[in-house]
């Protein structure tokens, strides 16, 4: 499937989805948290897309909002795309888990939770993964302050 | 003796059988355990000797490399990646350099592509040699360890002569390599190829056909193709489950599109398959180096770059094949001298968490063999 076909397929599932191909080598699709799980499920199970391999999952703090970024690839059709979910709520950021769709997401989501503080609804085991349980704050947020370990130059 | 058994009444027999009913219990394997090869803790749920659940606890050597990258220049980031998967350090460096070059739309000279590919393959060889040595040692064969380290030393010496460092090489810089190859480089590499071609069959003779070894690896640690894809298990571990995931083939970078080599795929899905893939990969690496070593084009060893590199705003993703699998470098730039966000998708992190599915139902002693065939490097997982 080429990018235009992917676009049309996604628009059928989520008409509100935003697209961009600028500044990235992949097709970028941005959706809101409520549409994420349904679209992800469709992208994985639809036999035309079959995006069964998630090769990256990460978070980005854009200060005005959070973003979780999913890099997907199909091992059958070998097309790729980037799915992004924009989370405007900075106080209580949350999005549905996709760990039931891609097993690897369970651990990558724990990492995003650990470092960004984004909660994943229905996650089977949402705990910190790299830092200790009693660590305060979320280090990869842009407003994170650590006077001991980070030296500002 | 038979009298003693005849004395046991039926009732007592019943009570002994109920006494052998086992209760699940927990055992901590690590963080300091020789077979984890680093600080990794596995919380095992056991039923007798049978593994019911493996829960990896990581982060003991988390150094927040991604956070550090947000304050560093692009040249400095290259150095940090050495400290992830230190056995594939050259390939890690290459990943960042390729991502930066992608952002700058910079075409590097052919000479650089050839040098990078040759050294990447030498790195892969040295990593697999160490893995092979350690794998044998994990299963009780000390000889393999000595052989592996003996042969690896030859590669490390070549690295030392060319770039001054033996392990964390920092040879790549955005735009090329730091300095040209040493005049002896080609000769020594060719000597090594000749030497190792004779030694590699010995590896097969020592372990591959060994009865103890095959008993402990065949049909042990089953990971289906579906699970491998779902867990994102890449590299030799993924390819042993039939998952065609070699980035060198599907997304060629540097000089991989100019050489002829096979992607090793097996469908054993067990520890033995993962072992065989790495052994076969060593032959392929030798074959790749052979094709390139006499044909390194003349030219510059570095394209001109500005002293302060600023990438145009946008997102850059570069995938490379390290000795352990797919490493992804995801750079988001906002046109400053440091990136806005960097993510390293390390192969070890994804591979590790398949261990639970892999180990369920097998004996605890087999876990060591399974971990060995996953070829984990802990700093790569913790970053």
Q: Structural class given helices, strands, pairing of chain B?
A: alpha+beta
CATH superfamily of chain A: NADH:ubiquinone oxidoreductase Nqo5 subunit
The quaternary organization reads as: heterodimer
**Topology as H/E string of chain B?**
HHEEEEEHHHHHEEHHHHHHEEEHHHH
- CATH architecture grouping of chain B: Orthogonal Bundle
Q: Class by helix and strand content of chain A? A: alpha/beta
Q: Can you tell me the number of structural domains of chain A?
A: 1
CATH level 3 topology of chain A: Beta Polymerase, domain 2
Distance between the termini of chain A: 48 Å
In helices, the fraction of residues of chain B equals: 40-55%
The backbone outline of chain B, from C-alpha atoms, is globular
Regions with little confidence, pLDDT below 50 for 5+ residues of chain B: 1-9
The outline of chain A comes out as globular
- SSE arrangement of chain A, N to C: HEEHEEEEHE
Q: How many helix segments of chain B?
A: 17
Question: What's the CATH first level of chain A?
Answer: Alpha Beta
SSE blueprint and pairings:
The complex is a heterodimer of chains A (153) and B (383).
Chain A: H1 3-13, E1 18-20, E2 28-31, H2 33-45, E3 53-61, E4 66-73, E5 80-87, E6 94-96, H3 105-116, E7 119-121
Chain B: H1 2-7, H2 10-19, E1 25-29, E2 32-33, E3 38-39, E4 41-47, E5 50-57, H3 65-69, H4 74-81, H5 89-104, H6 110-138, H7 142-163, E6 172-173, E7 176-177, H8 185-208, H9 211-217, H10 225-230, H11 235-239, H12 247-250, H13 271-293, E8 314-321, E9 326-333, E10 341-345, H14 347-352, H15 355-359, H16 364-374, H17 378-382
Antiparallel strand pairs in B: 1-4, 2-3, 4-5, 6-7, 8-9, 9-10
Helix pairs in contact in B: 4-5, 5-6, 6-7, 6-13, 6-16, 7-8, 8-13, 13-16
Q: Short summary of the structure?
A:
The complex is a heterodimer of chains A (153) and B (383). Chain A has 153 residues and is of the alpha/beta class.
